[in-house]
Amino acid sequence: MTTDDPIHTLSEAVNQAMDIAMAEDPDVFALGEDIEDPIGGVMKGTKGLSTKYGRERVRNTPISEQAIVGAAIGASLVGMRPIAEVMLMDFFAVAMDQVANHAAKLRYMSGGRTNVPITIRTSVGGGRQFGAQHSQSLEAWMMHIPGLKVAVPSTPRDAKGLLYSCIFDDDPCIFMETMSLLFTRGPVPPGRFEIPLGVADVKRAGDDVSVVTWGWQVPEALAAAETLADEGISVEVVDLRTLVPLDRDAILRSVAKTTRAVVVHAATQFAGPGAEIASLVGHELFGRLSAPVERMGAAYSPVPYAAELESLHYPERKRIAATIRAMA
Amino acid sequence: MTVSTTQPVGSGGSNEGLTDDAALRIFRTVTTIRSTEDRIIRGLSSGELRMTYYTVRGQEVIPAAICEHLRRDDYMVTTYRGMHDCIAKGVPLDELVAEMCGKVTGTSKGKGGPMHLSDPQSGLMVTTGVVGGGLPIAVGLALSSKLRGTDQVTVVNFGDGATSIGATHEACNLAALWEVPVVFVCQNNQYGEHTKFADYTRSPSLAERFRGYGMEARTVDGNSVPAMHEAAAEAIGAARSGSGPVFLECLTYRLGGHSFGATTEYMDPDELSQAEANEPVGRYRRWLVDQRGIGEDVLADIEAAVVSSVEAAVEAAKASPPPAPEELLTDVFSSVEALPR
Q1: To the nearest whole angstrom, how far is the Cα of A256 from the nearest Cα of chain B?
Q2: Which of residues 80-119 of B touch A (CB under 8 A)?
Q3: Which residues of chain B have pLDDT under 70?
Q4: A199 interface with B at CB cutoff 8 Å
Q5: Does the fold of domain A201-327 match that of domain A7-187?
Q6: Closest chain B CA to residue A247
Q7: Burial, A306: exposed, middle or buried (Cβ in 10 Å; 0-12, 13-18, 19+)?
Q8: What is the dihedral of CA B32, B35, B40, B43, to 10 degrees?
Q9: Which residue, among A31, A58, A66, would best test binding to B if mutated, counting the most B CBs under 10 Å from its CB?
Q10: Structural domains in chain B?
Q11: Residues of A with catalytic function
Q12: B216 vs A60: CA distance, rounded Å
């Protein structure tokens, strides 16, 4: 992408989205562990915001994930737009009653008389030797609960636009900030900028094989595509950006063209999002595919600590390239 | 643990502020709660009605007294054992009963059911089916009042069983830390589902335990209207004035099993029959006549009017259609466009 937009990290882009949302709407506020300055969030996402907007609107909490999410839900029921931070996605396990039984269901259980316009920002580990409890990509878990929207940006630009949309969306949104991308840099449009939820982005156009992916697997897929281009294999990389809503049309459009698809994700492969997408492609494009849909997800194991094992746990560029090569 | 049913009406409470008008409003509320429960049980027993039902018999006085001090724009959160709270907060009876029956005229168009009653117009924001799940949400509702600079108060009701779950402790600690205007109303009915209080905790007093979070906490006879009326006035007044959360342990007694059809074999039969003999609605009625000099005819008129409004609500619910098939996929998201296909 050629652009004159200023270059920022993904973390800075996240910060900008919150800054603009808070400036625009007094009902937007943030809560979470260590989000106030001087820490500004352990991943620095809220850096400077408590100084700018005060500690009433950017609120530190105790280490209480149930209370963080629950309090966000409560305030949102009467029209506020809280941005809750759950430090790591693994800690959703602690907060899951509030997430799954309350945030996701209150609109439906009230027959549409209440709604939960919260955003839960969370860091997702992986590839950084944080071990089994600080590295999980749990998007499949979120997708399986009707009522939650799930966004996973792969670039600073997407992070800003998607987060802004999540904050002002009328449903609960899980916003996954993958740690290995947080300090990568890219152009970010200044000022108010939104990307609608449910619109995928073709990060690289190609003709032979479609890679359907999101989050930190996007750069892995792009690297594989670059390698394969030298070998004469043209790879299209479709970045879904949100998993709920799912841009079904973008997936089918790409695979109808290439007739070959690989779904790549950091979530566990078994019963992972790739199964849903492979089923969709197989069903809708039955008879038009040149190869069975391939799935590449995390191994069916807790995330190992040793770097040698962890690199085997997640799909990475070389193995993605090998899979594509075998089917092209 | 002092079981409240052994205490005389009015112990620990003052009649100050409990005017005849207020006393009769409370009587109407507890009578409506009792009458609705009796009618539902009758309908369930005969097969006329079908729903999951968690008895509130014996706990009527607590929300009736509390809601005397709440405004319509104050918020309330309750649990699956919360029909009494809903009625006291002012959820329209017709819509309440219709919802419990799964009908389209219900508060949630029949999509929530008896464990998920909500009626934001009357301030009843959430009914949760998960023990303890409402407390963190109540902290957030109260936080909204603080951030917006209003003087609205949030009341969250829960049973003594909820004091054993983590969410309760996270919520109480956070509420005290943030000094938000929430009143934690623990309706201590002596049972956590099918287990007696003494069989799940060594704590002699819940008020004492929760005072440790740095908030006001007191124990009150939840079956005494004057005591509850006074305690609620203080607690809600304190929260409204900005002095932070209050924990009220309201001692009461659940006059039945966990849910309709459940057994009571773990309950001491002598204790249960004593509690039944001293049940709070009848006690309150006798007190109104004997101590307040309210005429029998006045109370009988209220009772007759309540019975007919309950009957009308049940008949309306029975006549109401179920939600249409299209309702299956609405209200999942703000728009059906977001649904996966």
Answers
A1: 18
A2: 106-113, 116, 118-119
A3: 1-16
A4: no
A5: yes
A6: B340
A7: exposed
A8: -140
A9: A66
A10: 4-314 (3.40.50.970)
A11: 134
A12: 23
Tokens encoding B147: 């951030």
Q: Is the ipTM of this complex over 0.85?
A: yes
A77 and B CB contact within 8 Å: yes
pLDDT in tens, chain A (328 residues): 567 999 999 999 999 999 999 999 999 999 999 999 999 999 999 999 999 999 999 999 999 999 999 999 999 999 999 999 999 999 999 999 999 999 999 999 999 999 999 999 999 999 999 999 999 999 999 999 999 999 999 999 999 999 999 999 999 999 999 999 999 999 999 999 999 999 999 999 999 999 999 999 999 999 999 999 999 999 999 999 999 999 999 999 999 999 999 999 999 999 999 999 999 999 999 999 999 999 999 999 999 999 999 999 999 999 999 999 999 8
Chain B contact set for A98 (CB, 8 A) = 133, 136-137, 167
Closest CA to B334 of A117, A162, A161: A117
Closest residue on chain B to A84 (Cα): B140
The answer to whether the peptide bond before residue B204 is cis (omega within 30 degrees of 0) is: no
- Please check whether residue B173 is in contact with residue A64, taking contact to mean a CB–CB distance below 8 angstroms: yes
Q: Are A323 and A294 in contact (CB under 8 A)?
A: yes
CA distance A325 to chain B (A): 31
Which residues lie closer than 8 Å to A39 by C-beta, 6 or more apart?
Answer: none
Q: Which CATH architecture has domain A7-187?
A: 3-Layer(aba) Sandwich (3.40)
Domain spans of chain A? 7-187, 201-327
Q: Does A302 touch chain B (CB under 8 A)?
A: no
Structure confidence at residue B13 (pLDDT): 36
* Percent with pLDDT over 70 in chain B: 95
Specify the fold of A201-327. Answer: Rossmann fold (3.40.50)
The verdict on A60 touching B (C-beta cutoff 8 Å) is no
Determine the Cα–Cα distance for residues A102 and B131; give it in Å rounded to an integer. Answer: 12
Length of chain A: 328
Q: Do B68 and B22 meet the contact criterion of CB atoms below 8 Å apart?
A: yes
Determine how β-strand A242-244 pairs with β-strand A149-151: antiparallel
pLDDT at B11: 34
Residue of A nearest to B73 (CA): A78
Q: What percent of chain B lies above the pLDDT cut of 90?
A: 93
